[in-house]
Amino acid sequence: MSFAKRLKEVRKENGMSQELLAEKLGVSRQAVTKWETEKGMPDIENLIVISNLFGITVDELLSNEKETSVRKGYLFESRTEYDIDGKKRFDIKLGGAAVLKVNGTEDEKIVVHLKSNELSGLKEDLKVKIDDIKGRIDVEVKRKNSLTEAKTKELLFIEVFLPNKYLSHVELECNCGEVIFSNLVCEEIEFGGKAPKCRVDSMEGELEIDCNIDMDVLVEHLEGALAINQVLSTSKLTVPDNFDFKTVVKGIKTLVTYENEGEMVEDFSNKDAENVIEFNGLMSELIINSRVN
Length: 293
Known about the structure:
This protein is α/β, with parallel strands linked by helices. It has three domains: about 60 residues, lambda repressor-like DNA-binding domains (434 Repressor (Amino-terminal Domain), Orthogonal Bundle), CATH 1.10.260.40; about 120 residues, no CATH class; about 80 residues, no CATH class. About 20% of the residues lie in helices and about 50% in strands. The protein has an 18-stranded mixed β-sheet that branches. Helix 2 packs across helix 3. The protein is globular. About 30% of the residues are buried.
């Protein structure tokens, strides 16, 4: 993996924008953009600062062999756990975050893990409330003191672990820069809020996205259905070239077009496929892009 790709990857994993990284390094955002597009390299001083910032070595940043890009630890963390005793509906309201990652596990508990390198009062300023009420688990992250959602959207990383064996229906709300779904097996997950970027690493079941802003959605592995509901938006969905799916289009003045590696092509969906891409909306457009793995 090139330095450009590695830098972009670790920056996103740590929920940091190009602007924030540039600010921490004392360089322009354009300089960070050049580094991430292979048009330049930082000097050794900045390489050392970057490695310290993300908790990896300079060698790992520059190595062509992929090492772990997940941060080994954050400066400030808060972890809340609750044991589950049977199949439940989940209603999860998380507020703002830079990055939200939702993981399915084989455990029998829900875990909400809050992380940040900047929010020193994280444990005092953010409280996780979990209520178990008649077959439903309600989860809410509440801000306290003077902490604003603008700050959490810039500086907070949230990771949620859900017990696959006990999931029926999940309603999830968050305003974040990116949401990632990984290793989930669930009848239905409904995501609402705002997230300009969405990545489905691995999921079995139905994922419904209600988000009225332009989005980039990336599917790595999906068995089931993906429904995107939008109003006055134009979004792009990228799927592997071997992903077999049928397209369902509903709504008023909604349009679906197709691309292959960025070039417009004819409809390559399959009306007999088991996987479903459904697009619902009002005066909205979805571009489905196929890319080679």
